[in-house]
Amino acid sequence: MNVRKGLIGSLLVLALLLGACAVPAAPVAPAAPEAAPTGPVEMEFWFSGPTAQMEYMLAAVEEYNGLQDKIRITLTETPPSRERVATALSAGQGPDLLWYNHNVPWFFGIEAVYPLNEFVLDPEIGIAAELLFDAARQTVQYGGIIQALPIRHCPGGLLYNRAIFQEAGLSDEDAPQTWADVEALALQLIQRDGDQVVRWGLVNGAIDWMLQELVLSNGADWVDEELSRYLTHPERLVEGLEWWGSLYHDKKAIPVPSGVTWAGVEALQVGSEAFIRGDAAMSGFHGLCSAAAMLDQNPDLDIGGGLTPLGPSSGGQRTVSLGFDGIFVMADAANPREAYLFTKWFFENKGVGLTLVSPGFVPSMRAALEDPAIQNNPILGFGRVLEDLNKAKLRNFHIFPGRLDVRAQEPSIAEAVFLGQVSPQEAVDAFVKHAEEVFRLYADDLREFREKHQIVW
């Protein structure tokens, strides 16, 4: 009996449950849509530079944030470490905006940046091409991609200490114009105490910069216009290495160049630090923009400068290497259009001002040449730099695909000569053979890049 009652009770419960399931459920009200964000678009901007430039950039970002309420930029000072930037980008933790230079395609790949073509060429928010020097605009165009807005440029050249020049009865008008002038002044201005050098007449920049400038200032080029051959006129590089090597081996007029792999730290510091301390009359051949960092370390330096002096085979034709610093919108930026709008504002309103606190740099905007402060720049305004730039053939640093293996071998040319392992001719012959093999292996890539490398802006 109890079992039967239990069974009937279970069946009643089951029936009730089935009936409940058959009754349509009451409609559930849809969730209220999330309110659209009302605050500004937040963006992070990574910047590194000497103190004066950092202060200028901070003030510019603060001004921009105060001018409008749709975009808020947070400026983060980052060490100038490509390893740090590359690590952050690969981990998806990079910035929306990055201040960097022409090496971006080499260090991080062109895919790391957001192409600006759609914005720069937009009739409403674009930038008129005629506002920029042609060379300045061309330096940021890489394989048909406008990779950044160029704010300033760094031409190759030679710096000199005006105080040491004046002590020797020299002025800006005596700045060297040829390799022969450089050698004569280096030997005139060096000071020795027995076998010990107490003041150098000339110290080198980084070995790759010096090597590059030897080629360009002696009537040769690193790559032809068709991207089919590397190192035009190799005999002119031989000539440059013979001269450079003789300054080191025979005349003892220069210390070990910066950036070599076989010298100890102490030896390398002699060259890189002597000019900054005021213990060298000249520093070259390297970017004139290095003056900014030098003055940050020693504000008392009185520096003059000029484009790289001409070699004996130049025929009077100056080719100037031109790299740029600018603002990149990164590929992972959540709001690339808004990031571009800040970049455009900075370019149009603050670019020249940043150049003025960046000694040795050249502005990108044509109007800057009418600015008395640019004309009277203590480094560029003394006479010839801007005038010579207007006459020179200009070479974009990276006019062929980034990470092409040839560039990695360039410093080895000079190192082998300075180490005394090979003659300049042997070093250049080995390099040319290597370059020809690389160009053969990458012929299809080079052809495809050349077809894409159009000036679109």
Topology overview:
Elements: H1 2-22, E1 41-47, H2 51-67, E2 71-77, H3 82-90, E3 97-101, H4 104-107, H5 117-120, H6 134-139, E4 141-142, E5 145-146, E6 149-161, H7 162-167, H8 179-189, E7 191-193, E8 196-203, H9 207-216, E9 221-223, E10 230-232, H10 234-249, H11 265-277, E11 280-287, H12 290-297, E12 303-307, E13 319-329, H13 336-356, E14 362-363, H14 372-375, H15 385-391, E15 393-396, H16 406-419, H17 424-441, H18 443-452
Parallel strand pairs: 1-2, 1-3, 8-11, 13-15
Antiparallel strand pairs: 3-13, 4-5, 6-11, 6-12, 6-13, 6-14, 7-8, 9-10
Can you describe what's shown?
This protein is of the alpha/beta class. It has two domains: 41-154 and 323-396, D-Maltodextrin-Binding Protein, domain 2 (3-Layer(aba) Sandwich), CATH 3.40.190.10; 155-322 and 401-452, D-Maltodextrin-Binding Protein, domain 2 (3-Layer(aba) Sandwich). The chain is 44% helix and 18% strand. It has helices at residues 2-22, 51-67, 82-90, 104-107, 117-120, 134-139, 162-167, 179-189, 207-216, 234-249, 265-277, 290-297, 336-356, 372-375, 385-391, 406-419, 424-441, 443-452; strands at residues 41-47, 71-77, 97-101, 141-142, 145-146, 149-161, 191-193, 196-203, 221-223, 230-232, 280-287, 303-307, 319-329, 362-363, 393-396. Mean pLDDT is 85; it is low at 1-27.
Number of domains: 2
* Radius of gyration computed on alpha carbons: 30 Å
CATH architecture of the largest domain: 3-Layer(aba) Sandwich
CATH topology of the largest domain: D-Maltodextrin-Binding Protein, domain 2
**Mean pLDDT value:** 85
| DSSP summary, beta strand count | 15
User: How far from one another are the termini?
Assistant: 96 Å
Task: Report on the biggest sheet.
Answer: 11 strands, mixed
Q: Which CATH first-tier class of the largest domain would you pick?
A: Alpha Beta
The assigned structural class equals alpha/beta
Tell the overall outline.
globular
Helix content: 40-55%
CATH superfamily of the largest domain: Periplasmic binding protein-like II
